[in-house]
Amino acid sequence: MAAAKKSAKKAAKxAAxxxxAAxxxxAAKxAAxxxxAAxxxxAAxxxxAAxxxxAKAAxxxxxxxxxxxxxxxxxLAAVVGATPLARTEVVKKLWVYIxxxxxxxxxxxxxxxxxxxxxxxxxxxxxxxxxxxTKLVSxxxx
Length: 142
Description:
about 140 residues; mainly alpha; 4 strands; 7 helices; two-stranded antiparallel ribbon
């Protein structure tokens, strides 16, 4: 008798998934028209993700060493001005000067061609890489 009950239960279990499978197919057919509404649902999480990025950006504070006003040397003051400036502002003003006088090399844009004023700042070099430029300029800030 126990064996008959087990086989009846197995038959019932096998029959139940077949019935459950039939509604899944129907649900899949119904899901196709709902795809038009799906992008609206996907847009909502993107809005929620944006404030997280804004929160991370708000936590970031600038490094005090970059924001400290430094006095440029007389050679550098001829290019960026004599007023004390933050390191970042010095580099910005230097780039304005480079672009204004078109001192960027035409073939290799990473290289800066020094004019008379910049040659003193760059330690006598006629051409300097833009990555080395900040290292050379930092020697003229105090």
